[in-house]
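Re: weekly structure request thread

Next one in the queue (77 aa):
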Amino acid sequence: MPYSSRAELPDSVRKVLPEHAQAIYQQAFNHAWQQYKSPEARRGEASREEVAHKVAWSAVRTQYHKGDDEKWHKKAK
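Done, posted below.
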């Protein structure tokens, strides 16, 4: 279930992340979807989709943070 466009991302992602962060999420999700297709590549009982979403959020957090205003902001360099 890789995402071919940002428009296909879940509402929970599209409604809260800026466009650049959405692009990061999409790319990370799609990469993780391929990387963790084998159950042996995953830890525990997590599904392929669950792992891919976790990886995608982690990738977003490398460049963005959630501010006190509950919005996602690009981290300062």
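The chain has one domain: 11-74. The chain has three helices and two strands.
Next request, please.
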